[in-house]
Amino acid sequence: MLAISLTHYVVLSALLFSIGLFGVLTKRNAVAVLICIELMLNAVNINLVAFSKYVTPTDFIGQIFSIFVITVAAAEVGVGLAIIIAIYRNRLSVNLDDFDWLKW
After folding, report:
1. What residue spans define the domains of the chain?
2. Assigned CATH class of 6-98
3. Start-to-end Cα distance in the chain
């Protein structure tokens, strides 16, 4: 039976980050973009915890930074959804192509 090494975690994290980046670049729905950003942040959390486990197994530095990332992600989702709801009330759409208020 194979043991899970650091390489497995890094490959998983790179795959999740790539899927999230692809979603951010291709999705038109603002809520879907927020979900893809969360996926990218979770990939970062996997890297933080994995490197912490394999580089300094007695310290909890990666886990602490991961908690900070989760806190920032929760705040980002709260503010992002509030902005999206406010824009939906004005424009009746969450399509990113319709958000053209800053264009000349």
Report:
1. 6-98
2. mainly alpha
3. 61
Q: Are 39 and 16 spatial neighbours (Cβ–Cβ below 8 Å)?
A: yes
Encode the chain in three state secondary structure. Answer: CCCCCHHHHHHHHHHHHHHHHHHHHHCCEHHHHHHHHHHHHHHHHHHHHHHHHHHCCCCCHHHHHHHHHHHHHHHHHHHHHHHHHHHHHHHCCCEHHHCCCCCC
Question: What is the C-alpha to C-alpha distance for residues 84 and 15, in angstroms, rounded to an integer?
Answer: 28
Residue 48: predicted pLDDT: 94
Phi, psi dihedral angles at 29 (to 5 degrees): -90, 130
pTM, rounded to two decimals: 0.86
For residue 102, name the pLDDT band (cuts at 50, 70, 90): low
- Residue among 20, 24, 13 at smallest CA distance from 40: 20
